[in-house]
Amino acid sequence: MATQKDVKLVVANKLFERGEALMRVVVSTTLRMKFNDALRCFEAAADLYRQLGKWRLAGASFAQCADCEQKMREPLCAASYFVDAAEAMQKVDPGEAVRLYGRAIAEYAVLGRFHVSAALQRTVAELYEEEEAMHDAAVAHGYAADYYLGEAMAGQAIACLLRSGQLLAMEERFEVAAETFQRAVTLCLDDNLLKFNSPSIALDIVLCFLCLRDDERSLDFIETHTDMDFNFAVSRERRFALDIILNCQERDRHSLLDHAWNFDYVCELKPYRLGMLREILDAVQEPVDNSESDSEESKDSWLSDEDAASAKQGTAAGSDAGSRSSAGSSRRSRGGSRTSLGSASMG
């Protein structure tokens, strides 16, 4: 005996097949009427599939509804159906859900509803994070920030940029993470209500530079940002950044750990910051490359040896010349004495 679920499934399948048949048929009436009839069949089938928990079939039915709306030139309704299809497909196939969300985002962006596109883009980013595709999630958060900026929603854009930078830092893409954090800190400084968040973001930028083993860029950024933001000049983040830079230059891992522990006691370090500090600690523990200094020392010693050898040669040449001059003078004195003796004998 067939159950109610079996009956609903049979009805849903027939409605879906009816809708596909209407999409293929050539009618003498207007195309809008044909697509409208097909839309009703697909929508009814999607509702039944959703009740039965057939999420893949429900998503496919909603996607067909969106296609019908697009052919009737109704982009707003098409975008809404694409969202329904993505939400249903999200439960069984996240990859297909991302594709459907992308179509919805494109439709809303064409209509100028950037805040809706941004919200859906953040949903896509969260899907990527669940799938542990951190780089794709970071890129999606960056797109969401751009959409929020299109609606002049700086606060939401900064939140997306911060999350994008954090994910990039966790993926050890420190150069791109620093650029993302710099975009966020610039937006903070442009808003009087958000500029008090800039010291924390500035610290992230300094840590990214230190992970790249670039102390000079870190010091230059601190100097520049101190002139731009008076809050950073007296903040604990600036003091902590300067201490970490000093520890890196002195290669003092114990002081670095002490400063990190003290800062964490006052302001809890998030996982991505702990990862960057771990990278900095590994850099401090790396052995110093003394090959250049050794070559310079060997070159200096070689030059000093060569100078000493030339000095010895000069001394030897001077002594030879002296002996030759003394021999010549003795010969002249002997010649003079012989001349005087010859003159005396003649006399």
TrEMBL record:
It comes from the Eukaryota. Residues 286-347 are annotated as: Disordered. GO terms for cellular component: SNARE complex; vacuolar membrane. Residues 314-347 have a biased composition (Low complexity). The keyword Protein transport applies. InterPro entries: NSF_attach, TPR-like_helical_dom_sf. Transmembrane segments: none annotated. SUPFAM superfamilies: TPR-like. Keywords: Protein transport, Transport. One of its GO terms (molecular function) is syntaxin binding. It holds the Pfam family SNAP. GO terms for biological process: intracellular protein transport; SNARE complex disassembly. PANTHER family: ALPHA-SOLUBLE NSF ATTACHMENT PROTEIN (PTHR13768:SF8), SOLUBLE NSF ATTACHMENT PROTEIN SNAP (PTHR13768). Belongs to the SNAP family. This is Alpha-soluble NSF attachment protein. It comes from Cafeteria roenbergensis.
